[in-house]
Write a structure and sequence with these properties.
The chain has six helices and 15 strands. The protein is of the alpha+beta class. It folds into two domains: 115 residues, 3-Layer(aba) Sandwich (Rossmann fold); 113 residues, Tumour Suppressor Smad4 (Sandwich), CATH 2.60.200. Helix 1 links the parallel strand 1 and strand 2. It is elongated.
Length: 253
């Protein structure tokens, strides 16, 4: 029993939704169709699908819609399916489908993968990555279980799944921060000039940590973005979910 939740804003051309429905029908996996609206959030529609007894709920849209449906299904036996429409490369890599046509083919076989998610303050979840939304370096403090990391950050990614990061522990988050070294002042500047009198070498630095949970602090509230949606702001507790989600993926994904 399939229940489809569409974000029609993600459709790239007129008539695309009819193409999608026609392919679903031809493969024998059509079902009930619903559409997010100002008075019908993705979470509300997913809850409605559960109340009706549907066992497979498909999110047809981008990362924001897919994460919203995942919020409802995490820890349940019902399955999340995905038809990517303008979704991130990380999300399409996760399910093993680069376009909506191949994603529909994969839905037919219903191969299920169980995985942990990233979680914000026990409510919002993300399947792939969370980014600190900054355009210039800012001072960031990250509190882990046994230590604290402080730096002037250029970029911060908190990854639950990324195709370029080898995940070592399935229930840990991978945290990567690109920071910039600051020019030394006072006695440190004088020492630096003695050691390197001809040039001041300011190089970028990458910090990488695996952790089950972390707290991110900044001097002012900075958005945390999953896909292209702000789902929280700093300061924030971010952790790997205790529960898993069941998601349809391609073979070998």
């Amino acid at each position: 029993m399939y229940y489809y939740i569409f974000d029609i804003k993600r459709l790239r051309k007129k008539g695309q939704i009819d193409l999608i429905k026609n392919q679903l029908t031809s493969l024998g996996i059509s079902g009930e169709y619903a559409y997010i609206a100002p008075n019908q959030s993705a979470e509300m529609l997913a809850e409605n699908a559960l109340n009706k007894g549907y066992t497979t709920i498909i999110a047809a849209g981008g990362d924001d819609l897919i994460n919203s449906v995942a919020n409802v299904l995490v820890g349940r036996r019902e399955v999340l399916g995905v038809i990517p429409l303008s979704a991130s490369e990380e999300l399409t890599d996760l399910i093993g489908c680069k376009d909506w046509q191949s994603a529909i083919e994969v839905l037919r076989f219903r191969r299920i993968k169980e995985m942990h998610l990233g979680r914000i303050s026990g409510s919002s979840h993300f399947l792939t990555n969370l980014y600190l939304d900054i355009s210039s370096p800012i001072e960031v403090t990250i509190e882990f279980k046994d230590f604290i990391l402080q730096a002037w950050a250029k970029n911060l990614i908190i990854s639950n799944y990324h195709p370029e990061i080898q995940k070592k522990f399935v229930d840990y988050l991978d945290v990567a921060m690109e920071s910039i070294k600051q020019k030394p002042t006072g006695i440190f500047k004088r020492i630096s000039n003695i050691i390197k009198p001809s040039e001041q070498n300011l190089s970028d630095n990458i910090s990488f940590v695996r952790a089950k949970s972390l707290r991110v602090f900044t001097k002012t509230a900075i958005p945390l973005v999953a896909g292209d949606k702000i789902i929280a702001k700093t300061p924030q507790l971010i952790e790997s979910s205790d529960d898993k989600i069941r998601i349809v993926v391609a073979k070998n994904s």
